[in-house]
Amino acid sequence: MLIFSIMDILVQWCVVCFDDGIQLVPKSWIAGTKCFWPTFTSNKRYEKAVKHCEEPDDSWPLYNMRILGTYDSYEIGKRKLKIAEDQSDLSTDDYEKSKKRRSLKKKK
């Protein structure tokens, strides 16, 4: 039981699959089977928030998602995200179908 607790502490980033794509997010953005999604309009701002594991804002919407993999390193998470664009399960080498990276929504 202690081993799982230590592993949970080390995990900081998750590659997740949304209905409309995949993305790397901090573990703190995940709430059960849902994930907070920022209302940022620039990719640069999004990348900074992910890299520094910023806490989610209560105003961010929640979306259904599925965790594909968990990582204790941002760099490893980014590498796995690239792999996940071609595979659905990061723990295997089986090819399922190509996925696209989730993008930020443009403000109207």
From TrEMBL:
What organism is recorded for this protein?
Callosobruchus maculatus (Southern cowpea weevil)
Region Disordered: start-end pairs: 86-108
Report whether Metal-binding shows up as a keyword of the record.
no
- Is Signal found in the keyword set? yes
Q: Which residues form the signal peptide?
A: 1-17
Q: Where is the composition biased (Basic residues)?
A: 98-108
Which keywords, in A-to-Z order, does the entry hold? Answer: Signal
Name of this protein: PWWP domain-containing protein
